[in-house]
Amino acid sequence: MRLPRFEYYQPGSLAEAVTMLSEVPGARPVAGGTDLLVNMKHRVEQPAALVSLSRVPELAGVRSEDGATVIGGGVTLKQVQNDEGLKAKFPALTQAASVVGSYRHQTMGTLAGNLLQNTRCRFFNQSMEWRSVRALCYKAGGDYCHVMKKEGVCFCTYHGDTAAALLVLDAEVRVEGPDGSRQFPLAQLYSGEGKAPLTLGTAEVMTAVVIPEASATDGASATDGASATDRAAGGGSPAGGSVYLKHALRGAIDFPIVGAAVWRNGDATRVAFTGVDRSPLRATVLEEALAGRALTPAVIEEAAPLAPKGVTITRSTVQPGSFKRDLMSALFTRAAGSLL
Amino acid sequence: MKVLNVVGQRVPMHDAAAKITGQAQYTDDLVLPGILFGRLVRSTKAHALIKSIDVSKAKALPGVKGVITAQDIPDRVYGIVPKAKDEHVLARDKVRYIGDEVAAVVAIDQETADEAARLITVEYEELPAVFDPLDAIKEGAPLVHDNTPGNVSAQIHKEFGDLEGGFAASDFVFEDSFYTQAQNHAPLEPHAALAGWDALNGDMTLWSATQIPYFLKRNLSTTLLIPEQNIRVIKPKVGGGFGQKIDMFAKDFCACWFAKELGRPVKFVYDREEVFQSTRQRHPMYLTVKTGVSKEGKIIAQKITAHADGGAYNSTAPLMITLSCFFVMIPYKIENLVYEGYHVYTNKPVGGAMRGHGIPQPRFAIERQIDLIAKRIGVDASEMRLLNAIEAGEPHPAGFIINTCGFADSVREASRAIGWKEKRGKLPFGRGVGIACASFPSGVANMSHLASGCVVQLSSEGRVSVLSGAADIGQGAETVIAQIVAERVGVPMEDVHITAADTGLCPLDAGTFGSGVTVRAGNAALNAANDVRAQLFPVAAEALGCEVDEIEAANRLFWVRSDPDRSVGMRDLLRQYQYIDRPLPIVGRGAWVPPATSATTLLTNNGNLSPSYSFMTQAAEVEVDLETGRVNVIKVLTAHDCGQPINPMLVEGQLEGSILGGIGYALYEDSTCIDGQQHNPSFLDYGFPTMMELPEMEGIHIDTDDPIGPFGAKEAGEGTQLAPAPAIVNAIADAIGVEFDRLPVTPAMILAALKKQREESAAGDPAAAGDPAAAGDAAACHENAPREEG
Amino acid sequence: MGGRRILTLNVNGDDYEVVCAPNTTLLEALREKAFLTGTKRGCDLGACGACTVIVDGQAILACLSLAADMEERTIRTIEGISEGGDLSPLQQAFVDHGALQCGFCSPGFIMSATELLAENPHPERAEIQRRLAGNLCRCTGYVKIVEAVEAVAQGTDGGSR
User: Chains B, C: CB contacts under 8 A, how many?
Assistant: First the structure.
């Protein structure tokens, strides 16, 4: 399946990249390409120009800045999962990075790209020929939804793995645009809409992910790859820790049907999910119920049914909503249990 | 005892080095001077009349060299089964499924061809469509083909013994219904064709990713009206088939048509989406099984009713439904038996031959029902299988001649190796074991076009050149044939060079299907090699001063059996052969056709379906994640009677690949449709097992020595895909007490069933909780509550 | 920026000058411009691994890489693994263990496994599975592929070559 035509720019600096993105009409940034190029082959995204971030030096590397951990937007998921410092402090993130797609996607894909991936739907992520059988859906610029049939709303679902992990780590993202740099909580990156799921401006580049030191836990580092589907690797110590668990049909290649991240430090617990709604989300009802309580098996069991509460579950033609609800509770239970 | 030197050895595939270095040439790797690239335009409607097709914009696009619709080519139908041809290269008048071909373009490069295809607009008049075979057979249902009332394009009704009498004589009679889904073969190589035309001689050459070069040649001739003797089909390396390439497709015909029209080579390569949507898939099937048993578990009578969802065209329909029928008669002895099967057209992707071909579906139903019955009447499911096992040499209701049969041993061995006695019903909740059984033909007899030929040539340097029509699609057919020839001529493997599946050079062969290649093409090669021996060995006998039948040969050496020191090497022997003025090369010819009791059509007659039958029992141990519903297959083992393996390493590879495909069928794969549109046409969304899904596998070989196969070989690797799914679902039932009656069993289904089980358990129903004490309670534990009689 | 231009791609130590458009993938450049057809097109959407090549030491999917992004990089394809015609120890192990059938996925597996062993010469079975799981095979059931990689990793195989 061939790519559509586009112009291609290869800036050598961040400033140059931002300039190109603001000046070239219809330009989009591309890093690993594992999400965008598939969508372009399917012709669900057809930018007039691509600005490659692969040679922008400012996006590389993991460093410490005023105590916070700063991960360059261009750091690959393979680099993330192999970084000893990240493994020790933020196991949920390295575990999530190690279960994205297949190892090939982890090698090519960047952390920023994983966060910025488009939302998905079985009726949208198809070739132009395939989609031509049906009316154009909202997301493709049409006036219809083939799944939910709710007027005017697109329910394309967000399936990024690392977002859930970074949400419980209270991460912020740093972006560079024509008006300079700004930094804001990760949750604000997502609009909550299926059709246009991101809040970034067209000329903005995500330069880094910033994780506060307060989110670091002194957990035993996760075993490589042991965080495979459903199986908790353990990423904690008695003091606390973090963990990411993914349920997908297969142990590789697939997007999560549901992904769950849990972070614990003393009596503080944070829980986030991906794959359930149009954006990754913190399980606020569940977190409120856990607030100020020490996690014990009994507390986890009591709270688990609350995992899906307050969340709009986007069902699909592939997985029933009730299954996703069950998985949210199950993955929370297992993830939280591994942190005791 | 047989002493073998090359046969029976773990020889690497003769083309392994070419494949592992990237030098092996598949169809899409080939380029010819002046080549053009094609693309097909496919229907966006499930069922519609074609009112008009506007190709003007496509034709006007710079770089486009040709555009055709049905009106530009002969009005001929093609098909793999001669009596069931129903497919046009490009749809005439109406389209029958989403993905049906309506037009084709060629251009100077692929990008231009793709763009031109998008510029073609088709005006349709939509017709009511039908997507389920049980709807399609109802009165008043839309007709997919106007000439097929009721949409039943092939059916079979076989009756043996006295069914009603058998039911009356049974202690119990149970009726259960099952459903199996569509499965895609998903070979890694997408379908491709490259055609070249020699205008001077009127010769067409087609390189095609095919399992059936000779059938393809004939169909090219009858469809495009080119004399058959002017067509040469060459099968390059084929990147997997599993039955999907036992057919011909628009790409083959369109490549040839354009090559002839334009006088330039033309290549068509399908996108992955086209492979999923517009080639072939395993038939979804609805099955009802009614079985009468004695209280000990002896099957007295059985009636099977099957409705196969054929999709829009026949492909192998009559053969598929015949195989589906005949293989419910084996591996169990059932004297009173009725099978009624229907191949039903729907406006969906087309069913075709897939590894097991019509048999995994009834196998799932029967093997599941045996477990259900065993539970209901309180007998051991493994013992029940043994009690009904067929034996070699027994008279068979349909006239099968079973010369060797390791079936009962396979049940015993598989049960022993999985730890049946220690584990069945005794593992902690969530963990279980299951077994299931099957039998498969080694190629099909009693049909037309089933001969294989072979030529073996021995040159003055001792090079052995083999010409075989057999189509190696990655399973190693060429290697097996070369081993057979090497063994018989008395040379090491490296002396044998094989050219195969080139219809311009090689003798006739039926193709790769029905698991018949090793027996059929292997026997042809054996006969050809014997012909070489017959010419060569008298000279050796002369040189060594002994009788011809005293000569032994191996590794380029010929010696007297009783006195091995009297020997002569191949080079010296060939020199002597030349000195006495006999012509070199020595050319041996061989052919083989499966012995049939008579030339019949099995759709209507009975007879010995295959020269030999393989038997297998598969056992699985699973662990069900009670919170996420995931099934972790811990171990699958196969106890298998495939006769004498020509190459044990290749046999193992066949078993392992087949089992993983079976695991996919059980748990992962489902080629779904929504409104007739294939819903998961990609490796991402279809999701066949990756290396992460790999269980422990074990193969147990049951020794038999078949009198018909070359060196005693029988089928291997296709039958193995019949029983993993029921074995796994039986193991799931043992693990959690839930009796699934459809495939695939997904985590969502498991969680829903467990939830229901908990609710029923809370309501005080012991059977639903998987309580072994309640296992004998027949009706309560299955949603298709059986009728209990007797 | 939008038109075709001549790229210099360093593949297996050789500089290939190929005319590519911005939308030409590395897979298309290798197969159709440099005639290195050992790299296979299985799905063209990054979900099968048949097109895996090694760029600057990293095994990546050629179908989702732009040729224009590949200048000044070191590209290694299956044709560059068996230098001088000798099979690499890994290739020899695949042959000896019967770790291939139709062969269409084999080049991709060799590239992924070559990267793995370069980074971790003695991987455990679970690590082999995780790192090769992006390469699909429909023939072998993966058993012998895992065995072949394990054999090289444990030094029980192919080391003499």
Answer: 173
Q: Do C22 and A224 touch (CB under 8 A)?
A: no
Instruction: Place B449 in a pLDDT band, splitting at 50, 70 and 90.
Output: low
Contact at CB, B680 and A320, closer than 8 angstroms: no
B521-576 residue pLDDT tens: 999 999 999 999 999 999 999 999 999 999 999 999 999 999 999 999 999 999 98
Q: Do C100 and B684 touch (CB under 8 A)?
A: no
pLDDT bucket at B368, cuts 50 / 70 / 90 = very high
Three-state secondary structure of B553-595: EECCEEEECCEEEEEEEHHHHHHHHHHCCCCCCEEEEEEECCC
B660 touches chain C (CB under 8 A): yes
Please, which residues bridge with residue B345 across strands?
B311
Judged on CB neighbours under 10 Å (0-12, 13-18, 19+), B674 is middle
Cβ within 8 Å of residue A298, ≥6 positions away? none
- Structure-token pair, residue C107: 């080049």
Q: Residue A104 is inside which H or E element, if any?
A: helix A103-108
> Residue B207: beta bridge partners?
B194, B234
* Diameter over CA atoms, chain C: 52
Residue B403 identity? N
Burial class (CB in 10 A: 0-12, 13-18, 19+), B579: exposed
For residue range A310-324, list pLDDT tens digits in order: 998 987 778 899 999
B243: which chain C residues are within 8 Å (Cβ-Cβ)?
A: none
Order of strands across the sheet that contains C14-20: C14-20, C5-11, C74-76, C52-55, C58-61
Q: Label residue B779 by pLDDT band (50, 70, 90).
A: very low
Burial B170-182 (b: 16+ CB within 10 A, else e): bbbbbbbbbbbbb
* Secondary structure (H, E, C), chain C: CCCCEEEEEEECCEEEEEEECCCCEHHHHHHHHCCCCCCCCCCCCCCCCCCEEEECCEEEEHHHCEHHHHCCCEEECHHHCCHHHCCCHHHHHHHHCCCCCCCCCHHHHHHHHHHHHHHCCCCCHHHHHHHHCCCCCCCCCCHHHHHHHHHHHCCCCCCCC
**Whether the Cβ atoms of residue B81 and residue B314 lie closer than 8 Å to each other:** yes
The answer to whether the beta carbons of residues C26 and C53 sit under 8 Å apart is: yes
**H or E stretch at A241:** strand A240-247
Single out the residue of A232, A255, A230 nearest to residue B630, CA to CA: A230
Distance between CA atoms of residues A96 and A244, nearest Å: 6
Q: What ipTM did this prediction achieve? A: 0.97
Helix B477-489 × helix B517-544 angle, to 10°? 20
Look-up: residue for tokens 């773990």?
B10
Strand partners, B500: B468
The DSSP output letter for B389 is B
Inspect the interface and report whether the beta carbons of A52 and C69 lie closer than 8 Å.
yes
- The reply to whether B627 touches chain A by the CB within 8 Å rule is yes
Euclidean distance between CA atoms B569 and B574, whole angstroms: 9
Nearest 5°: CA angle at B628, between B627 and B629?
A: 100
Nearest residue to C88 via CA among C74, C96, C35: C96
Q: Which of A17-26, A143-152, B239-248, B358-367 has the lowest mean pLDDT?
A: A143-152
Mean pLDDT for all residues in chain B: 94
Classify strands B266-269 and B36-42 as parallel, antiparallel or unpaired.
parallel
Does the distance separating the beta carbons of B747 and A333 come in below 8 Å? no
**pTM of the entire structure?**
0.96
> By the 8 A CB rule, do C65 and C26 touch?
yes
List Cβ neighbours of B102 (8 Å cut-off, separation of 6 or more). B41, B42, B43, B50, B53, B69, B70, B90, B91, B95, B122
Cβ of C147: how many Cβ atoms within 10 Å? 18
